Amino acid sequence: MPRNFFTLMRSSAPVGTAAPASNGALLEPPPSMKRDAADGVGVHLDPNLEAVRHEFTEEVETALQLRNVSAFYGSFQAIDKMTMPIPRNRVTALIGPSGCGKSTLLRCFNRMNDLIPGARIEGEIEFEGRNLIDPNVDAVEVRRRIGMVFQKPNPFPKSIYENVAFGARINGYSGDMDRLVEDALRRAALWDEVKDELDKSGLALSGGQQQRLCIARAIAVQPEIILMDEPASALDPVATLKIEDLMRELAEEYTIVVVTHNMQQAGRVSDYTAFLLAGEERVGRLVEFGPTQDIFTNPLDQRTEDYITGRYG
Amino acid sequence: MSAASPTAGITPYAPRIRARRGLSVGFMVIALLAITASMLMLGALIVEILVDGAARLFTDGSATAQEVRGATLIDLPTPENMNWLAWAMPVSILLPFLGLRVVRSLIADIPALAERAIGFATTLPVAVFVHILYVRFESAYYIEYAKAIGVDGASGNIFQLFAEASGFQFVRLIVAGLILPLGIIAAGWFWSNRLRRPSLLLPAIATAAWVVYLFLDPFFLSSYPSRLPAQAGLFSAITGTLYMMVITAAVAFPLGVGAAIYLEEYARRNWFSRMIQVNISNLAGVPSIIYGLLGLQVFVRVLEFERSVLAGACTMALLVMPIIIVSAQEALRTVPPSMREAAYAVGATRWQVVRFHVLPYAFGGMLTGNILAMSRAIGETAPLIAIGALTFIAFLADSPTDDFTVMPIQVFNWVTRPQSGFHEIAASGIIVLMLVLLVMNAAAIIMRQRTRTDW
Hints:
In chain A, 34% of the residues lie in helices and 23% in strands.
């Protein structure tokens, strides 16, 4: 029996899936959803409706398993009951219009929302058999194992070397720091550009270099998952391309989750895509999830198609 | 970072450039004036150091500088053993700055250093020559003047002449009063341009030293209070102020910064932290005499510090704590949240984020706030009078539990005396106080500029 996404889902999650994947055919969305979508932009999302899921065409392990994840900022609910897996060693893209909860969801994965007063998460995010959201789980340990790269490059105002070494140092890394720094910079495709000036301030680099420095900084801690929040949105096309190539390379060793507004980018770099959408009440919900190929060429939900083809603006 | 950018100092904003160019001729004149003045003083410094030092070396301390120079000058202080102090002060101010420049230049590039050294070396003989001319002219005038008013050159000092000749003093007041602000403006003009900066630093310091020299007999800074205005000095007040400030900073800075870190980085936003915040703002507005009364009861009586340096410093620490807390909070807020997030994202604990990132990036701002708070504490008189600081201290404090006095109290005491001589030295004391404040505030401004990070 193929250990595909659905079998994982059914074995671990109580939430039922839309339909059994008996013959590998694409799922038909419920008629009600199509009708809602036909009303146009800002459609009403029925909270009781399940997200549409494509069947996976490959065997893949699950790095993170979300079950009914909801996030709140005070009394405002940002995302509602999302259930999906994050496949291991793959690039997963979160797409959707602004305000649909992509970044919020991403920040749930490494407990970054803990830092925002009034923010709380409900549900379950399973990571190596433990629930990340459990208050008894050490958020610092979670963040060490699930790294993050931010939208705006944010190197520390210290030397390039110190930028990369910082994470390892505070986590008690006792090996050869020079080698670690070199290795991280090489993997971030920055070594050749900065090897002669490791003492230079990280802020003196160009925007694209800064972002790759931030990626090196994340790699140096040797995480299992790297979260990227629109990592190329502040960069020019050339730098963007470099970052995208890098993401493809890193996906061989790391699980990558990337938030992006750029459809082409999602199509180019990601293996799996989740489409999120917020209804009129501005609560983000998962609409469709599956292999990027399927989502882009054969979206099952009308709203996904509208968004991908640009009809949502 | 601005330090690495070759275009730093060139503003791309055209209208501002035009406005500056319009003013620049005036500034140029001012700068030339200031540099001329500073050359005078630089020469004076060198002549005095060389001649005075040589005199002590070769005559075994028995001869004074005026003898070496042909007994032309009557302005050197009489107690020989205190003589070195008067020159040690400006030199000790000068040397660290000089050293800083030299070291920085060495790091930067050798050719620039050589260029600077040549420039400096050519300035020296000119400065010495100008000063010798000046001294010749002045000493002739002094001798005549001293004879006319009947002052014996051996017993009095230059200040005595000033005190009894207000007309003469007035001229010097005008001269020095013009040079100081003009020098500061010119310094600002030079400071705004990275290339001109190094060339100004020495002349600027020399100018300041000259102003001090014009106004104040060095003896005034190095002698204890006296019942004779001509022999009274600020020495115990200056050391008392320094002593108290060091302890105040040592008490108030860690506590204030700690409180700010707690409030900004750790405390949850609830009614309790809001209450603390409001109360800190309120405390900043409480009249200082109230702190004096609090200090009198708590430190002097309950904790039995008596009227010591320690009691005064603790009272002052309470007084400036709100200022330090608020300014440290401001400094912490300038560290962008993205820096904290970046540190958290690699698995830093809250303390590690504060210790390795927030605190280092905000430290310059905190120091600036601390210096400004200290410069407020230096001028405070009321709380110290309340806790009973003395006004006549003819010794130096050995330990924090000794009696003490500070500059504003000494000045206050002199002003209340009926003799007009004391009023004159009170004015001198105020100038010293003002100079100290100017230096501290300038240090704060420079520090703020230097530690600024462009995120």
